[in-house]
């Protein structure tokens, strides 16, 4: 096979795995949008906050130590113990659930019946707040996150492809794991929303708030539930991205990578988030591969948006989005 | 009592439809303008001008522009930073290519260039709506920034890709470059702001503004009653981008003096201006001013209070500052989702009756 | 009452002008402890502040005049940087260290106008080495072009003096900072005959999949990195992933700190970076630092950055500033120096090996001297290598000199162009 084709194939394979990483972030957006019609801009910051909390628990950091030290003149840093990952992850999940309860209690409850843009703005406010809060709580330095996931080149893929094509493909083992985890996550979420009582209630709320209220579904409970699930998905995304490049501020910017995935897949579709992620991932890697010699690299930041934009011109509601029906 | 309209009679339609129908308001406005043009230049010091007043004036122009798009025409845009960059780079190219051209024309032409680019990126709005459009405008943001950092022609092939504004004068007084004094910077920004506000106010209350609002409230219904959505949406994009471009040009040429697309006009700028519009109040000229004031002056005051007065470590103060701004946004949305402008209206209603309510 | 007092303090803090405090030496610090680059900004600011605190505590200031430190948070944002500058410029700041190339470009014309010296150590505008044009800007002891040239000289050394037929890729942060070395590396490519490839990474640089696939396809012999923030650990991780030989991967001095390699773990073993100064705790100065600053609880920040690379850099910057202030006191015979006097001190600064030993920092930085024609020092740097097992940076070379002739020639062209653009007639001050 010619080299270019092999290289392109390798680039698209990498695009697929990168796409899964985007989809992981996009999933959180979709969940909240489906259940409450809120475009949750804070999803990226949620991922950062979850990852920070996880690392903090793992390394036994004392929360707010810098604030305490500055005001009381003490010198606290760590508790002196390390929490095993199996304990730290459930502990972080608890924190995320607590956060969901607080968000519902202090923000959402007061904004029932507001226009979507107001709710969107509120989540931006929340994003700011959490950004500062996470830094105060855990400190702003880069932290290494290790939950025991394998990293580096997959030798199995390299060997197999080398035997077939005479050129070993490169795939990051972490991203293969991410694909597996994403598949499990989607399966669990689907089962949850199809076959459990809460899941059905959640879908009812997504369809119509008022009708759901009138059959006795507690809107507030459902909101706490969705935000908790979104928090857990954020934790997963935070773990995957944090294992890649360490936990620090820029982790919150992955939200921007998820937005084109969202519009491509449609705001309301879980499979859409996955398929959208894959399309964007492959698209941008291939575009970079072919166009790099012509227009220069680093096109990833905008290409995804352009692709989504062109796509929207033909299908304004996204790939799997609900059809927009307009009446006067 | 303080604020009354009794005895304020109108005898013509023109008098009835003026911007400030109440005498008290009108005189207040004249006093404010007089103060801004005549008194402020005498009392303003460098620190105030450079850290608070000039950025406030510049961002108020951007907020006015975005408010036309979002507040009047209902098209959500997150590409403001990119459009500001267009204004900045257009003014840079004009300043270096035609050194003898007056800076005022340079800035206006930069605004026009931005308007053209805005129309181009506004085209998808004919098919895409709501959040989908917001994300689509991000394409403009990222693409424009990429273009400006990649294409050497835009920054005159300088090795670093930074653009820096040469000194230009208005009536013999330098307004750009390092020799520009705080007062001259203040004055040129103020003039542009007043002109922009006048333009925005008169456009929005004319037939064009009514068309925009019809599109905002329900585009299909508007189309049925004869509003051409193509023209209405694209004019909104054009006017909005024109103002945003002017503010970008001012930000670069007058305020920053040197800039780099990715750093000075990143996505944060888009969000910042969007916050101003929403916190100030959608669909209100006053709101654009109030929002800009809130988000420019607020953080500086917080910083002065926390660091200089209370002596907190700067990092804690900065984290707290972000938290407080975030919390304030949320509180504002809960208390008054329609922004400071709506709050101001409520206050006026109350003041009309004060101190003798029914 | 409370409100009026608050308002009064606010008003008082805003009117920063007024009488100058002649009995202190004001060293401002424009730091960034928040935002995307906080991880790099925190240790630098801590080191800068701790050294100045040490001078105050141990020596009672410089020449008997105590140092006054102020800190202003820029978050690596140019607008906030300008605001910080405006808030301190009437307060007799002896030297401005903006700690960001973007802010440097904003402040070059302003400091020139205001007569405040600015020191950009290892960043900023390279052509500021020409002190005849940039009277108030200093970038000793080394700049980006020096760094690029030192790396090439090091590679020449490794390859027995010839890079003919080699392929060198530059992975750069797509900003003013990252693009700085490109012209130098291109010029050097012509001279030494290596093939040059530049690969940009957009800020913040968390996604480098395509770039490293490209590197994997192109198989360069060496990869040079100009990165900052999260781009560094990501790149090192990706390099480890594709099994790029780490010893052929060399970062600039802003891509070679603990924060960059630690998140990668063992995979980063063998990664190299430029070092414009020594690092680690094996310097006598740390005894004093421990006694006067750390144990006394007067350290800045959380105190857990002491001895890291960027902490050392902050300390080095503070040390050079203090030495320049001493020089200024010596030249003018006044203890309470002004910014203008400080400039003279910086322009005549001379760092010798003996002086470094005397300061408790033997061989920490290069010996160099500053003159009006050369604001850039010697440009020499060392190469350090990361030992993941021991968790420390080891210096593996001595000081390597850059190709100064070429750099001065390029800097001259750029600075003359700047002078023409801004109507500056190049000349030395006094």
From TrEMBL, chain A:
The keyword Cell membrane applies. CDD domains: TM_PBP1_LivH_like. Keywords: Amino-acid transport, Cell membrane, Membrane, Transmembrane, Transmembrane helix, Transport. Its main location: membrane. It holds the Pfam family BPD_transp_2. InterPro entries: ABC_transp_permease (IPR001851), BCAA_transport_permease (IPR052157). It is found in: Cell membrane. The chain crosses the membrane at residues 12-33, 45-68, 88-108, 117-140, 176-196, 217-241, 261-282, 294-314. It is a multi-pass membrane protein. PANTHER family: ABC TRANSPORTER PERMEASE PROTEIN, BRANCHED-CHAIN AMINO ACID TRANSPORT SYSTEM PERMEASE PROTEIN LIVH. Belongs to the binding-protein-dependent transport system permease family. LivHM subfamily. This is Branched-chain amino acid ABC transporter permease. It comes from Roseinatronobacter alkalisoli.
UniProtKB/TrEMBL annotation, chain B:
The keyword Iron-sulfur does not apply. It is found in: Cell membrane. Pfam families: BPD_transp_2. The chain crosses the membrane at residues 27-44, 56-89, 101-123, 130-149, 180-200, 212-231, 237-259, 271-302, 322-344. The keyword Membrane applies. Keywords: Cell membrane, Membrane, Transmembrane, Transmembrane helix. It is a multi-pass membrane protein. InterPro entries: ABC_transp_permease, LivM-like. It comes from the Bacteria. PANTHER family: ABC TRANSPORTER PERMEASE PROTEIN, HIGH-AFFINITY BRANCHED-CHAIN AMINO ACID TRANSPORT SYSTEM PERMEASE. This is Branched-chain amino acid ABC transporter permease.
């Amino acid at each position: 096979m010619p080299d270019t084709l092999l290289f392109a194939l390798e680039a698209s394979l990498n695009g697929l795995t990168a796409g899964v990483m985007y989809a992981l972030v996009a999933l959180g957006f979709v969940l909240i949008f489906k259940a409450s019609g809120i475009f949750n801009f804070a999803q990226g910051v949620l991922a950062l906050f979850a990852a920070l909390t996880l690392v903090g628990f793992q390394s036994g950091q004392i929360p707010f130590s810098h604030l305490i030290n500055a005001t009381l003149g003490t010198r606290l840093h760590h508790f002196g113990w390390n929490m095993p990952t199996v304990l730290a992850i459930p502990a972080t999940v608890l924190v995320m659930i607590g956060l969901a309860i607080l968000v519902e209690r202090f923000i959402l409850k007061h904004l029932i019946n507001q226009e979507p843009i107001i709710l969107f703005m509120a989540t931006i406010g929340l994003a700011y707040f959490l950004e500062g809060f996470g830094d105060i709580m855990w400190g702003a330095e880069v932290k290494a996150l290790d939950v025991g996931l394998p990293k580096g080149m997959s030798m199995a893929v390299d060997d197999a492809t080398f035997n077939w094509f005479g050129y070993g493909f490169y795939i990051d083992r972490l991203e293969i794991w991410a694909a597996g985890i994403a598949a499990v996550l989607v399966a669990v979420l689907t089962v949850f929303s199809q076959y459990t009582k809460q899941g059905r209630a959640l879908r009812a709320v997504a369809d119509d708030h008022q009708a759901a209220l009138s059959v006795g579904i507690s809107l507030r409970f459902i909101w706490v539930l969705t935000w908790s699930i979104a928090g857990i998905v954020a934790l997963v995304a935070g773990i995957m991205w944090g294992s890649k490049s360490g936990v620090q501020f820029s982790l919150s910017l992955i939200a921007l990578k998820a937005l084109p995935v969202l519009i491509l897949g449609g705001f309301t579709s879980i499979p859409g988030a996955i398929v959208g992620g894959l399309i964007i991932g492959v698209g941008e890697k291939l575009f970079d591969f072919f166009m790099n010699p012509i227009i220069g690299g680093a096109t990833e930041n905008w290409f995804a948006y352009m692709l989504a934009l062109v796509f929207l011109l033909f299908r304004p509601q996204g790939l799997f989005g609900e059809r927009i029906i307009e009446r006067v | 009592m303080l604020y009354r309209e009794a005895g304020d009679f109108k005898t013509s339609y023109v008098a009835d439809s003026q911007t400030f129908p109440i005498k008290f308001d009108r005189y207040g406005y004249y006093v404010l303008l007089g103060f801004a043009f005549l008194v402020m230049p005498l009392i303003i010091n460098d620190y105030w001008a450079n850290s608070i007043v000039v950025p406030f004036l510049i961002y108020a122009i951007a907020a006015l522009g975005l408010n036309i798009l979002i507040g009047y025409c209902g098209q959500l845009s997150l590409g403001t930073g990119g459009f500001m960059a267009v204004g900045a780079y257009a003014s840079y190219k004009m300043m270096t290519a035609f050194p003898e051209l007056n800076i005022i024309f340079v800035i206006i032409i930069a605004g026009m260039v931005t308007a053209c680019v805005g129309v181009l990126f506004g085209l998808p709005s004919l098919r895409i709506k709501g959040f989908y459009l917001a994300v689509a405008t991000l394409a403009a943001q990222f693409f424009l920034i990429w273009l400006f950092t990649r294409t050497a022609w835009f920054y005159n092939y300088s090795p670093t890709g930074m653009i820096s504004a040469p000194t230009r004068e208005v009536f013999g007084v330098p307004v750009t470059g390092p020799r520009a004094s705080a007062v001259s910077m203040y004055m040129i920004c103020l003039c542009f702001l007043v002109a922009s506000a006048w333009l925005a106010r008169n456009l929005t209350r004319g037939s064009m503004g009514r068309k925009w609002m019809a599109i905002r409230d329900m585009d299909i219904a508007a189309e049925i009653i004869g509003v051409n959505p193509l023209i209405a949406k694209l004019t909104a994009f054009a006017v909005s981008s024109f103002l945003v471009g002017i503010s970008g040009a001012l930000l670069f040429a007058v305020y920053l003096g040197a800039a780099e697309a990715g750093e000075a006009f990143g996505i944060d700028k888009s969000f910042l201006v969007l916050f101003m519009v929403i916190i100030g109040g959608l669909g209100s000229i006053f709101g654009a001013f109030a929002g800009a004031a809130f988000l420019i002056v607020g953080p500086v005051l917080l910083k002065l209070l926390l660091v200089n007065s209370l002596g907190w470590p700067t990092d804690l103060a900065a984290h707290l500052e972000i938290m407080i701004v975030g919390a304030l946004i949320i509180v504002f949305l809960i208390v008054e989702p329609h922004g400071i402008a709506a709050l101001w209206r409520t206050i006026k209603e109350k003041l009309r009756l004060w101190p003798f309510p029914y | 009452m409370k409100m009026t007092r608050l308002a009064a303090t606010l008003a008082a803090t805003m009117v920063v002008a007024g009488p100058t405090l002649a009995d202190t030496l004001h060293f401002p610090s424009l730091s960034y402890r928040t935002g995307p680059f906080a991880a790099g900004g925190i240790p630098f600011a801590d080191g800068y502040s701790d050294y100045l605190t040490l001078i105050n505590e141990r020596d009672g200031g410089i020449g008997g005049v105590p140092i006054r430190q102020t800190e202003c948070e820029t978050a690596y944002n140019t607008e906030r940087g300008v605001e910080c500058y405006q808030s301190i410029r009437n307060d007799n700041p002896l030297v401005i260290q903006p700690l960001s190339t973007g802010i440097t470009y904003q402040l070059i014309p302003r400091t020139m106008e205001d007569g405040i010296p600015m020191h950009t150590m290892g960043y900023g505008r390279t052509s500021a080495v020409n002190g005849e044009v940039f009277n108030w800007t200093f970038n000793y002891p080394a700049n980006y072009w020096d760094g690029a040239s030192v790396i090439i000289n090091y590679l020449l050394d490794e390859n027995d003096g010839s890079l003919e037929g080699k392929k060198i890729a530059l992975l750069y942060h797509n900003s003013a900072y990252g693009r700085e070395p490109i012209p130098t590396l291109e010029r050097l490519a012509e001279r030494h005959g290596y093939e040059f490839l530049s690969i940009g990474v957009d800020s913040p640089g968390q996604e480098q999949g395509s770039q490293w696939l490209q590197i994997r396809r192109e198989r360069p012999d060496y990869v040079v990195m100009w990165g900052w923030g999260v781009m560094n650990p990501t790149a090192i991780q990706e390099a480890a992933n594709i099994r790029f030989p780490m010893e052929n991967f060399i970062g600039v001095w802003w891509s070679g700190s603990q924060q960059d390699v630690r998140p990668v773990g063992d995979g980063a073993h063998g990664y190299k970076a430029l070092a414009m100064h020594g690092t680690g705790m094996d310097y006598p100065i740390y005894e004093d630092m421990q006694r006067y600053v750390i144990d006394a609880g007067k350290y800045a920040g959380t105190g857990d950055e002491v001895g890291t690379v960027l902490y050392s850099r902050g300390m080095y910057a503070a040390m050079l500033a203090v030495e320049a202030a001493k020089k200024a006191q010596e030249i003018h015979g006044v203890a309470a120096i002004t910014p203008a006097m400080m400039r003279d001190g910086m322009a005549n600064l001379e760092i010798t090996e003996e002086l470094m030993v005397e300061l408790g920092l033997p061989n920490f930085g290069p010996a160099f001297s500053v003159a009006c024609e050369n604001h850039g020092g010697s440009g020499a740097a060392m190469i350090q290598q990361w030992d993941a097992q021991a968790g420390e940076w080891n210096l593996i070379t001595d000081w390597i000199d850059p190709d100064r002739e070429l750099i001065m020639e390029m800097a001259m062209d750029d600075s003359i162009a700047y002078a023409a653009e801004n109507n500056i007639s190049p000349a030395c001050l006094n």
